[in-house]
Inverse folding.
């Protein structure tokens, strides 16, 4: 067994507000996990408890078999990367990176070698004697990253490390963090509200909401099989319809909208069947110019007519907002297909909702 | 990787967890303030209520029974009321000129306006005496028969003592209140006067109230000016002094102190309340360019500024000139000689030994001020850091205690020290009690400026150093202190200046052995040596101004912005 980090029934209350409730999770040595959720969901509080900045109200934090609730932050040797970089502006890059080693009274020559090695790791050798305000945001966060790695921490905690950066730098640095993690084989716990970031970087994603864990899974599973309406809504984009189940059909009595579903609905109790939501991802919906274009063999009940209301180009895909049954449906199709069919705003189109792509939530 | 393993990483050695260190520091401060703030105040209360026979209102009955001392309450309220009213109006017009008009020489006016902050609160009265007193320059020159001693003299002195404080608040208010409101009103067709009454004044109202409350507090607690120019007109502060020093009636002094505390604390609380309301009203919106003012507007506001600033310049010029000419004022009816004597210079007034005093008081003031500056700046930095950044339990209580000194009149705190520490040998009439008193009396402002600075340091900077293995003292000295240098040196300057010019806080605490320059001014005036008092004032003001300018120059060279 490796040096795993286990959170056991962890709860944190701030006066009357419960930030984290009864959280249990095991993080394997060398694993890259992301805490994902909207602001105020408790993800940062969880990270701060792991770091030792907050004392849990109840529950245990276990590392390598020992309960570390009462160990002071200085002795945990977990590195932390902050959203605001938190570099010491009055110290050079070298002094910043060497700070942790200095606190541990590491010999000067060794310290200097370690600092050089880390600067090399992120390609900042020539910035050694500069002060943080002289560096770009991306460079500053690289320095913050290696500063937290200098003392060979067992776990690296990252609190929204890329939120303050521009979109392009964010993507580059994301890849770099992943590379460093793979190279060093270090356990990383990463907190973010950016679902794209979470899905692209981590081995496992922990989706949080209101202090609870909603779902823990591999990124692809989180996206494909969200186990709650919250996850389906928060991760990626989904179209939701509210209504009830009748046999294998979905029915919205107020608008008369109905869909055939192919999922097994037997698990839903009679009570639950009265009020369900179903969701479908925008890229799963097919778009046709007119009825004649629809291939045969598709379930006719799932073909609906709508009017293109708004069209936005997002690069590779084109997102159309289509009004249908007094509701708006988001449909993504590739730019290529969109061009080919020459869809226009205001045009009446046919939508096909594949029964197997609906998810049902009670 | 092999190289990596060669580096030996030992776990961090920590003696105590940060929380424990923070508690200990809060505890130390709590004990410090319990002894040097709460205990003296408790002694005041006790002395006013408790006699040999037990708890009694005897002292209060005696106070209100004697017409003479009863009058001191009325006198104080009258003087403070009138001063507050006039100062606030003066400061408002001056602030308006500084922020809303395009008159020339604003920075000069502002610099001169801040001069009174660097002088003991006795120079105003002293200048009045040397100009308009019984043997004053103007009195003799014009053969005037007026009497400057009394309420008029006090009010004029206090005007120029409170003015810079009120001005600072109103400049902040008027430059932060959105000037676009005025433009909007004008564009809707409102005339200039209407805009002024209906927009400018209402939008600055909390700043005006806050300035007024502060002026009231400063005037009612001031001791230096009324003691030298009040004559027979007694106010609460001078009555405390008379009872204690003149009659040795400590109990009655304590009783009057409690009576003085009521309006002083009330004004302080009001000032705090209005300051908070003011900040909530001030918008961070961009301040538009001030349009060039009309000629008549410029003329009026330049005139207002010149009159006020001119008066301040005359005050300091009179002090300086009185001290360096051989004969000042001369006798009535010798108009021609009086003016000729103004250029007959002499250094004889700087020879204090002829006046039974010694220049050594300046050195005492200097070294005491340096110690006060050093400890004051460090203590406020520690306290501000712990309260603002580490937030241990009880930090709110510590914060409240540190705000308290600003509400307590210096004279009252000083009397409390005498009552509380009369039996403590290493304090009683020693330099130590003077130093401790000045630090405690000025702790609030030093602490508030530190906390403002701490708020500007990102919380994660402190946490980053913690996670890298630095314990609280290491974080403080290696990370927080280097980032707080500006506020630290500002506080050094602040405590030094307060200590050089303070009068009321230490008047009861000095002794022939530890005598201060600022107190010596009062004694010299008391002995009738106006010229030597001016000489001593000149020395004190010169030291403070030189140090201040030196600091500003260093800040400027180092590229540090001073707010």
């Amino acid at each position: 067994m490796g040096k795993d980090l286990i959170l056991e029934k962890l709860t944190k209350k701030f006066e009357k507000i419960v930030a984290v409730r009864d959280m249990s999770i095991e993080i394997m040595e060398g694993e890259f996990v992301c805490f994902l959720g909207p602001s105020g969901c408790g993800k940062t509080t969880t990270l701060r408890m792991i770091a030792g900045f907050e004392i849990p109200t109840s529950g245990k934090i276990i590392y390598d078999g020992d309960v570390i609730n009462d160990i002071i932050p200085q002795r945990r040797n977990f590195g932390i990367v902050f959203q605001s970089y938190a570099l010491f502006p009055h110290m050079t890059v070298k002094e910043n990176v060497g700070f942790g080693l200095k606190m541990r009274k590491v010999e000067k020559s060794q310290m200097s070698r370690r600092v050089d090695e880390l600067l090399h790791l992120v390609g900042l050798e020539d910035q050694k004697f500069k002060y943080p305000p002289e560096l770009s945001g991306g460079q500053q966060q690289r320095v913050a990253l290696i500063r937290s790695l200098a003392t060979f921490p067992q776990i690296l905690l990252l609190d929204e490390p890329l939120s303050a950066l521009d979109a392009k730098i964010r993507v580059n640095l994301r890849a770099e963090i992943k590379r460093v993690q793979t190279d060093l084989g270090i356990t990383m716990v990463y907190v973010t509200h950016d679902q794209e970031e979470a899905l692209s970087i981590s081995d496992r994603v922990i989706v949080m909401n209101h202090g609870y864990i909603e779902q823990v899974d591999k990124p692809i599973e989180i996206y494909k099989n969200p186990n709650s309406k919250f996850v389906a809504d928060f991760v990626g984009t989904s179209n939701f319809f509210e209504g009830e189940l009748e046999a294998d059909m979905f029915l919205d009595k107020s608008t008369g909208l109905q869909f055939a579903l192919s999922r097994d609905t037997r698990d839903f109790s009679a009570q639950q069947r009265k009020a369900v939501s179903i969701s479908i991802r925008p890229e799963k919906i097919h778009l046709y110019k007119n009825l004649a274009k629809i291939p045969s063999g598709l379930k006719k009940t799932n073909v609906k007519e709508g009017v293109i209301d708004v069209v936005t180009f997002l690069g590779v895909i084109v997102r159309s907002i289509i009004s249908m049954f007094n509701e708006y449906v988001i449909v993504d199709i590739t730019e290529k297909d969109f061009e080919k069919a020459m869809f226009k705003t205001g045009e009446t189109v046919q939508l096909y909702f594949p029964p197997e792509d609906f998810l049902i939530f009670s | 990787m092999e190289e990596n393993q060669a580096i030996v990483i030992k776990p961090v050695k920590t003696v105590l967890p940060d929380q424990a260190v923070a508690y200990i520091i809060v505890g130390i401060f709590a004990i410090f303030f319990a002894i040097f703030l709460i205990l003296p105040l408790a002694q005041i209360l006790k002395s006013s209520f408790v006699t040999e026979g037990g708890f009694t209102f005897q002292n209060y009955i005696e106070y209100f029974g004697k017409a003479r001392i009863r009058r001191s309450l009325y006198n104080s309220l009258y003087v403070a009321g009138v001063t507050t009213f006039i100062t606030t109006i003066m400061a408002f017009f001056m602030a308006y000129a500084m922020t809303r008009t395009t008159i020339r020489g604003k920075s000069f006016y502002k610099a001169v306006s801040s001069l009174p902050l660097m002088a003991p609160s006795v120079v105003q009265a002293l200048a009045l005496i040397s100009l308009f007193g019984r043997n004053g320059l103007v009195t003799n020159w014009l053969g005037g028969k007026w009497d400057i001693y009394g309420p008029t003299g006090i009010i004029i002195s206090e005007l120029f003592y409170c003015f810079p404080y009120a001005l600072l608040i109103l400049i902040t208010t008027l430059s932060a209140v959105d000037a676009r409101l005025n433009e909007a009103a004008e564009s809707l067709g409102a005339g200039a006067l209407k805009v002024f009454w209906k927009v400018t004044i209402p939008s600055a109202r909390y700043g005006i109230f806050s300035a007024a409350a502060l002026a009231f507090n400063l005037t009612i607690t001031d001791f230096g000016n009324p003691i030298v120019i009040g004559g027979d007109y007694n106010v609460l502060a001078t009555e405390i002094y008379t009872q204690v020093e003149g009659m040795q009636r400590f109990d009655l002094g304590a009783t009057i102190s409690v009576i003085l505390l009521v309006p002083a604390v009330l004004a302080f609380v009001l000032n705090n309340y209005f300051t908070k309301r003011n900040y909530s009203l001030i918008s961070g919106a961009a301040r538009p360019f001030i349009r060039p003012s009309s000629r008549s507007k410029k003329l009026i506001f330049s005139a207002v500024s010149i009159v006020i600033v001119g008066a301040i310049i005359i005050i300091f010029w009179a002090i300086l000139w009185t001290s360096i000419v051989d004969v000042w004022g001369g006798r009535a009816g010798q108009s021609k000689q009086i003016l000729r004597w103004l250029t007959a210079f002499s250094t004889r007034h700087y020879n204090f030994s002829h006046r039974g005093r010694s220049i050594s008081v300046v050195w005492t003031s200097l070294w005491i001020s340096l110690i006060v500056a050093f400890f004051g700046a460090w203590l406020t930095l520690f306290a501000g850091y712990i309260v603002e950044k580490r937030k241990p339990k009880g930090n709110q209580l510590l914060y409240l205690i540190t705000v308290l000194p600003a509400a307590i009149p210096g004279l009252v705190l000083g009397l409390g020290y005498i009552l509380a520490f009369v039996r403590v040998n290493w304090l009683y009439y020693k330099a130590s009690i003077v130093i401790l008193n000045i630090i405690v009396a000025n702790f609030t402002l030093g602490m508030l400026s530190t906390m403002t600075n701490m708020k500007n340091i990102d919380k994660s900077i402190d946490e980053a150093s913690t996670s890298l293995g630095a314990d609280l003292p290491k974080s403080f000295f290696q990370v927080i202190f280097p980032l707080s240098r500006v506020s630290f040196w500002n506080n050094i300057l602040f405590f030094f200046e307060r200590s050089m010019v303070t009068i009321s806080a230490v008047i009861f605490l000095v002794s022939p052995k530890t005598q201060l320059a600022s107190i010596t001014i009062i004694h010299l005036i008391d002995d009738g040596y106006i010229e030597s008092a001016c000489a001593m004032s000149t020395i004190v003001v010169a030291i403070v101004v030189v140090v201040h300018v030196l600091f500003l120059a260093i800040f400027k060279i180092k590229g540090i912005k001073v707010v």
About this structure: Chain B touches chain A through 28 residues (CB under 8 Å).
